[in-house]
């Protein structure tokens, strides 16, 4: 009877963990937007010597301001592009504490669908061939001079010198309309290292809040206390292994992952390589599934090193999206690549220091194999949910769970410690067992 109970523990544990994950796959995917539907968006990027302004003009406001009523036909818009940009530059102005900045066109106007509405998108650059000084003021009367009630959401993409960089949607600074046509960006924290330190922190947050990257790393590290040995059919995992070997394997895994993502992070961020976003996001999810499959049953001896290195290239491409979204100049971008990578590595090391001792501890109990397979099963469920979300263009259905974990990291970690402690206590070997060499 005792033998049968022990045999049942592993499948019951696997089924319980996997079932809990599947129960949460019930939330509808939703898309996030930089500004509400029916409004105009203005995205501001403050560089060391220039201010870039991307305008996402709602079609109704565009027609009211310009009299253009030929519909969203790009060829027709191209015919009036020069006159249109002159019209816009006479109504959109940027200045710093020294004086007004001159405008130039970066992107010609084009039609896009934003928040489900037709919009005209264009980008301007304001500079005076000198470093920016003090606060920056944006004055925008385009549309508002004929439609004062129209809402224009002004958002900050990044301000490197002021240490303001963020991942995801730009930070909304204010709303123009109702007689308000200008907004001022206070820039009181300018230091030479502000942007670098901010992007180091951004790299750390990217890992801490990036559940996909953490899950990939976890499914790789979970096999660190185990060794792939030959079995009748392929290979199987055996644990525990000596402490020194476990730490060495974990170090090699992290190093391999680091080498992979550093290469593509630099190449893509500098514009030397370019890949479509959706395939990269899907490959990130696939990488989790491959690492999880390897955690369940070894695909090949030391396969975790190959998986970490090869798919590290994919994760580096995804990391680069964050740098590209900051819209930095070349020099700032080089520092951002270095700082972001430092932040990513610091976060990975912290995660390894927190999690690896728990894995080593539990590897000396019979529950470890079931725990390893359970975590891998949850990873596969999460990866499938991500792929579905990418296909429909929304958030993963498991996002509420990931958001909750990110919002309560200490409580979640203590819960993991408690779970490992309970599993170890009830499934530990009662008699000393020699280590494998």
TrEMBL record:
Highest taxon, organism lineage: Bacteria
One Pfam family hit: HupE_UreJ_2
InterPro entries with a match to the protein in the record: Put_HupE_UreJ
Signal peptide: 1-34
This protein's record includes keyword Transmembrane: yes
The entry's keywords: Membrane, Signal, Transmembrane, Transmembrane helix
Protein name from the UniProt record: HupE/UreJ family protein
Taxonomic lineage: Bacteria, Bacillati, Actinomycetota, Actinomycetes, Micrococcales
